[in-house]
Model the fold of this input.
Amino acid sequence: MPKLKLPAPPSNPLTSPKRPGKEYGPSGPLGHAEEAGVTAVDWIDERTSLSGGLRWGMFRKVPKGTNWFYTLGSSTMFAFLSQAVTGVFLAMYYDPSATRAYASIQYINNEVFLGEFVHGMHRWGSSVMVILIFLHMGRTFFFGAYKYPRELNWVIGVALLVMTMTMSFSGYLLPFDQRSYWATIVGVNINGTGPLVGPYLSEFLRAGPYFGATTLSRFYAIHMLMVPGAIAALMGFHLYLVAKLGTTAPPWVKAEAPEKLREDKVTVDQ
Done:
């Protein structure tokens, strides 16, 4: 009985099959770079399944009547990211010492390449972030987005507002000039007048009974480590709840009944 001839094995069995639509594979440096990027992303997604989470968070229904007021939250997040990036660059040259803090700020503004620009972005960006977060909370309140089932997200937003104000207050002392020094003393004394926890909070901010060298280090640690980390964590939970619960339509937009319910109502009326 004659035997069938086996097909010849491929010359290189380790080569990956060509991608659909590319008969001859990538051509040129850009094509090879694109192919390498797609392969790397596919390798990561195959092991982590991140694409499912990204699709869940990014591709969702948006209510009718959505307008530019709904971008205030993302604008506040962008302002926080800008503060974080510029703060990292400023921390490379800033010296949180009572005797060298002011000189380091002068060095950043006068000697470091683009130092004055980065410092200006960080300084004025804090005011922009405070304005945006107040506008965002105002929009949430007047649109009724704090009601069921979004009460927890509203509470997290209030905590983010308090932490934003704390970050602005703690960063005001860092230049350690006459204005920031005496203004911070006034602010700490105001906090000390609060009931029950006021005196303890004032002593915690001063890092002792009086203003001293350790006060600047305490404010620097609060401004650079404690508050930004808490803001990043709460902001991530805040965005998760927004993606899970969705956004509310403006109060002047009336909800329309589904087509099936309208048909059932017409049938009952007849």
The chain is about 65% helix and 0% strand. The chain has a mean pLDDT of 87.
